[in-house]
Amino acid sequence: MRFPLLSSAVSQILLATKGYFRNIRDCATPEGRKNPFVGVGNYSTTIALLGAGMVGRKVIERLVPFDLKVLVFDPFLSSEDAEHLGVEKVTLEEAFARGQVVSNHLANVPETKGLLRAHHFYAMTKNAVFLNTGRGATVIESDLVNVLEQRPDLTALLDVTDPEPPLADSAFYRLSNVFLSSHIAGSIGGEVNRMADTVIEEFLAWQHGKPLRYAVTLEMLVTMA
Questions:
Q1: Which H or E element spans position 4?
Q2: Domain total for the chain?
Q3: In-domain check, residue 220
Q4: Which residues carry out catalysis?
Q5: CATH code of the domain containing 57
Q6: Which site among 49, 158, 174, 190 is 20 to 30 Å from 89 CA-CA?
Q7: What is d(CA 138, CA 71) in angstroms, rounded to the nearest whole number?
Q8: How does pLDDT run across 11-33, given as a tens digit for each residue?
Q9: Residue 50: phi, psi to the nearest 5?
């Protein structure tokens, strides 16, 4: 059901560790092409995920073949689940301080609004990347802007913002270390046909008393985006 979002997040994580986004920016000029930025690559690199819900857990599964070190911040993730997933459960501060890529998958709930602040972004390791395909409201935009202005080594990949789109005078438009996309990580174009097919399949399964693949309970809504 969330395959497009999953594939978008995983693809950007892997490209980010290669230094792809800074590299193409450097290669846009003859001078920059002489010595473009190159990342650390996709082996034994530390990736920090914020949120281990439906999407976060699928991202973890997709990253397994690349032998990456995966950290997870999620207050609802038990130590037993973390061990089963093969990840290290960490605090929010540890996630930002250790992750070469920090990928946000937190739900948009009152507890997460404005949760990601300046001190988190300041703590990021050198040349780190912040990826947000989750929810823009979890980030204090002015804090992120201030840090990105002072830390040009950092890169922000923002598919979601708050408000969306950013205001016309937002610094996101002028910062060279910010890459904006227009909330395209989810289903777009022909991908919505998959959503329709899945809804029909789930309905037919329910109608015939079969298990559902994507059942959502009232309890789950507390931690879902």
A1: helix 3-17
A2: 1
A3: no
A4: 135, 183
A5: 3.40.50.720
A6: 158
A7: 19
A8: 999 999 999 999 999 999 999 99
A9: -100, 105
